[in-house]
Automatic annotation (TrEMBL):
Signal peptide: none
Organism expressing this protein natively: Sulfobacillus benefaciens
Amino acids binding Zn(2+) 1: 8, 10
Catalytic-site annotation from UniProt: 115 (nucleophile)
Coiled coil stretches, renumbered: none
Keyword Methyltransferase: no
InterPro entries: DppA_N (IPR027476), Peptidase_M55 (IPR007035), Peptidase_M55_sf (IPR036177)
Keyword Metal-binding applies: yes
Origin superkingdom: Bacteria
Binding site residues for Zn(2+) 2: 8, 60, 103, 134
Single GO molecular function: metal ion binding
Keywords: Metal-binding, Zinc
Protein name: Peptidase M55
């Protein structure tokens, strides 16, 4: 049984500020170690549940955050940002997935550093009209490959959302947001012990979770923070302008819709402001 673990950073316990997740700061060096430790706890849980292999996909920012030399030596690591499946690269070769360090979607009450794909340019991301978190998008991509998401760990605002959208998935809150940039985190030992245990239980019970299936055709609607991003996005003829800030793409299935939407967002990010 092959396990993919996608690891973001804003949902790691103790993280509450931008400097902690951004390259070039002293805090960042400390928090990438904490990110690696949470990842190791999840890896231990996966192997305790009988995993044959574990692949970790670094899923934050530059996607070069996890300390390879401190990572559990039984796991393999995907790092670097240019990956077509982005945060779930590697899922094509997995039997089950887990998301660690995940955060609430953009515009969530008490969401810690809440955003969806890009904090700089996106207000909302909708799939077939429903506002989604990164965990929803990634679970849908996993579902395309018939891979269930057994566990999601991160901040509590995300878990309250996912309790509705991924009701079969095991959810673990490691911190409770007060504001976008403040939170109460569980103790370090509690977080690591819980992650290891919840991961083991989640992987053991993976057969009880149905992969997410979204019937095609699938639309992705992106509400940008500025109309200029939408203007740039519409250079692609496949992108439809919904209003000044909002664009929409449609694919025959979630993979096609994702590729169009991801290309749109990456193109928009090149806008000269
Ligand atoms: Zn991130």
């Amino acid at each position: 049984m092959r396990v993919l673990i996608s690891v973001d950073m804003e949902g790691i316990a103790g993280v509450t500020g931008r400097s902690e997740v951004s390259r070039g700061t002293d805090e960042y060096q400390r928090f990438r170690k904490l990110m690696t430790e949470e990842t190791n706890a999840a890896i231990r849980g996966a192997f305790n549940a009988g995993a044959d292999s574990v692949v970790v996909n670094d899923s934050h920012g530059s996607m070069r955050n996890i300390l390879y030399d401190l990572l559990d030596d039984r796991a393999e690591l995907i790092s670097g940002a240019n990956k077509p499946l982005c945060m779930v690269q590697g899922v094509e070769d997995a039997d089950v997935a887990a998301f660690i360090g995940y955060h609430a979607m953009a515009g969530s009450f008490h969401g810690v550093m809440d955003h969806t794909i890009s904090s700089a340019s996106i207000y909302h991301w909708k799939i077939n009209g429903n506002r989604v978190a990164e965990a929803d998008i990634n679970a849908a991509l996993c579902g395309f490959y018939q891979v269930p998401v057994a566990l999601v760990a991160g901040d509590d605002a995300l878990m309250q959302h996912l309790a509705k959208t991924l009701p079969e998935t095991r959810l673990l809150s490691v911190k409770f947001g007060i504001d976008q940039y403040s939170a109460r985190s569980l103790s370090r030992s509690t977080v690591l012990t819980s992650l290891e245990k919840e991961m083991r239980l989640a992987i053991e019970n993976r057969h009880m979770i149905a992969p997410v299936h979204i019937e095609g055709p699938v639309t992705c609607q992106i509400d940008f923070s500025h109309s200029t991003f939408a203007e740039t996005a519409c250079l692609l003829p496949l992108v439809r302008r919904v209003d000044a800030r909002t664009v929409e793409v449609a694919g025959k299935d979630i993979i096609e819709a994702w590729r169009l939407a991801y290309a749109t967002v990456r193109l928009a990010s090149t806008t000269d402001m």
